[in-house]
UniProtKB/TrEMBL annotation:
A GO CC annotation given for this chain: membrane
Segments forming domain EXPERA: 53-195
Family classification: Belongs to the EBP family.
Subcellular location: Membrane
Keywords: Isomerase, Lipid biosynthesis, Lipid metabolism, Membrane, Steroid biosynthesis, Steroid metabolism, Sterol biosynthesis, Sterol metabolism, Transmembrane, Transmembrane helix
InterPro entries, alphabetized: EBP, EXPERA
Main location group: membrane
GO biological process per UniProt: sterol biosynthetic process
Membrane topology term: Multi-pass membrane protein
Protein name, as recorded: EXPERA domain-containing protein
Pfam families: EBP
Provenance organism: Genlisea aurea
Amino acid sequence: FDHPYIPRDLVLPDYVPCFLPQSTIISVYGIISLLVVSFMWILSGFIRRVPKIDRVLMCWWIFTGLTHIILEGYFAFTPQFYKEKTPHYLAEVWKEYSKGDSRYAGRDPAIVAIEAITAAVEGPACLLSVYAIATRRPYRHILQIAISLGQLYGTAVYFATAVLEGDNFAASEFHYYAYYVFANAWWVLIPSVIVVRSWRKISAAFHTLEQKKAK
């Protein structure tokens, strides 16, 4: 089988290897992400009464929202990306990432379902969070909790299904820890922090409201 993925008997007819080197694929993603985050940080600085922590959250939400919509959306709705015969950057990303989890190249149904829902629902909701924070909408904390719980659930299913299926989908130990573990850990850590923060904000607001009613 002429592909770099594990298991070696994974059937990928007409597979076309990556055109771009790993360093280029990762560098482009890093640079574009940095530009997006920097743009949002600068833009949010012109909005009145937005604390720095909310500006940081706006940067996170636009980054993760565009990642969901563009990157994961491409995967979900381009089933034969591994056959791409030209250096299409998004196809290159998933060819490379599949070295850390070949279920992507193999179109595992659970993975496709998770990514499709994430791209179609959570992606736009993340961008709505940017707007809600910027305009101080009262639903901003509920929205952030809902999206973060969705991200945590999707990540939990992602890891759980891998374990149940044998957790043997990485081409090397490096790809396992760099792509499968490290790259996904951010969608466990950051959403968890956001849930706790927004939970406290909502609880404090209700506590204040109840105290006012009691007077």
